[in-house]
Design goal:
alpha+beta
C-alpha cells in the first residue's frame, strides 16, 4: 500500500523502526504551503489551505508497528452543481498495522469483507507522510457539493419530449 509508493509523492516523512521508543511516538505533521500546493495538485483539488496529521506510532508484536490518529485538512474543490469553488473539511481516522517485510499473512475468511491486511515495513522504515496522504485521498469527496447547493433540472416542455413531437414537427413542415 503506502510503502511501495513512488518516490515523487509530494509529501513524505520516512520514519525508521529504530526511531520508535518502546512507549510509542507522537507525531504532528504539518507540511509547508508549497508542499500543500503540490499535494492539492496531486489529489486533484484546487487548493489545500490546511493539513495536519496527528499520529501515534507504537511498537506492536515482535517487530511490527501500529499507527493511529487523524488526518485533518481543508481542501478547495469545485462544486458539482454550481461549478463554484468552495472549501470542504476533511477528517479521516487513521488505524493501520505494519508488519516486517515478507511476513506471512493469514488468509481472510471467505465472507469477511472488512479484512484489511497489514502494510509492510520496508527496509526497516515506514513513510508516515505517504500514509497521511493516502488517508487524505480517502476523505476527499469525489462528488463535491457546496453546502446548500441544490440541483434543479431545467423546466421541460412536456410536448417537446414526447416521442411523437418530432413526427408532428415533420408533418407540419410537409403541409406547407
Amino acid at each position: 500500500m503506502t510503502q511501495s509508493a513512488p518516490i515523487d509523492l509530494p509529501f513524505r516523512h520516512v520514519l525508521s523502526l529504530a526511531e520508535v521508543p518502546p512507549h510509542g511516538l507522537d507525531l504532528r505533521l504539518e507540511p509547508t504551503e508549497a508542499v500543500r500546493a503540490a499535494m492539492a495538485k496531486h489529489m486533484g483539488v484546487l487548493a489545500m489551505p490546511a493539513f495536519v496529521a496527528t499520529l501515534h506510532i507504537a511498537p506492536e508484536g515482535a517487530a511490527g508497528l501500529h499507527v493511529t490518529g487523524t488526518v485533518d485538512a481543508a481542501v478547495v474543490q469545485t462544486c458539482g452543481v454550481t461549478l463554484e469553488p468552495f472549501e470542504a473539511p476533511v477528517r479521516e481516522p487513521v488505524d493501520v498495522h505494519f508488519v516486517p517485510e515478507g511476513t506471512a499473512l493469514p488468509a481472510p475468511a471467505e465472507d469477511d469483507e472488512s479484512y484489511d491486511p497489514p502494510d509492510e515495513i520496508i527496509n526497516g522504515a515506514i513513510d508516515v507522510g505517504a500514509l497521511a496522504s493516502e488517508f487524505l485521498a480517502l476523505g476527499i469527496d469525489p462528488y463535491p457539493r457546496k453546502p446548500g447547493a441544490v440541483f434543479e433540472p431545467p423546466a421541460e416542455d412536456a410536448a417537446a419530449i414526447s416521442p411523437f413531437s418530432a413526427l408532428s414537427r415533420l408533418k407540419g413542415e410537409g403541409d406547407a
